[in-house]
Write a structure and sequence with these properties.
Number of strands: 5
Oligomer: single chain
Strand content: 5-15%
Shape: globular
Strand order of the largest sheet: 2-1-3-4-5
Largest sheet: 5 strands, parallel
Radius of gyration: 14 Å
Distance between the termini: 22 Å
Structural class: alpha/beta
């Protein structure tokens, strides 16, 4: 089952909304996860810790995460999966749109093996 870690640039309200839709989904905002110990930490540390806990990172960071994932792939290092959200498609302030997009993804792909999977969640919230 897909277990999500929302990066620090995603409102904790997204976690609240996803939990309301499905009691069985584990969604943790970075602000709550490990008591906020990873706030402001390097992406590499967050990805490694998320992997050890079986968490898939949801992030708007489409600039630094993809190159890091490329390096990790070349080094054959594993991660717990990453869902990249493009802020040109779903604005960070559009909490409802992100909840709908992630809910759709969870319904369609929640049972996949998320280790080393990278997906773009660039869904148009108006069509959901």
């Amino acid at each position: 089952m897909l277990r999500l870690l929302l990066d620090e640039h995603i409102s904790p309200d997204v976690a609240v909304g996803l939990r309301r839709q499905s009691k069985s989904i584990l969604v943790l905002p970075l602000t709550e996860w490990e008591r906020g110990a990873f706030l402001g930490q390097e992406d590499e540390l967050v990805l490694l810790a998320a992997f050890t806990q079986g968490l898939t990172l949801v992030t708007y960071d489409c600039k630094t995460i993809p190159p890091l994932l490329k390096t990790w792939a070349e080094e054959e290092r594993s991660h717990g999966g990453v869902i990249l959200v493009d802020d040109k498609t779903i604005l960070p302030a559009n909490i409802g749109g992100l909840i709908r997009a992630l809910s759709k993804l969870i319904n369609e792909a929640g049972d996949w093996d998320w280790n080393n999977r990278v997906i773009s969640c660039n869904l148009d919230y108006r069509t959901l």
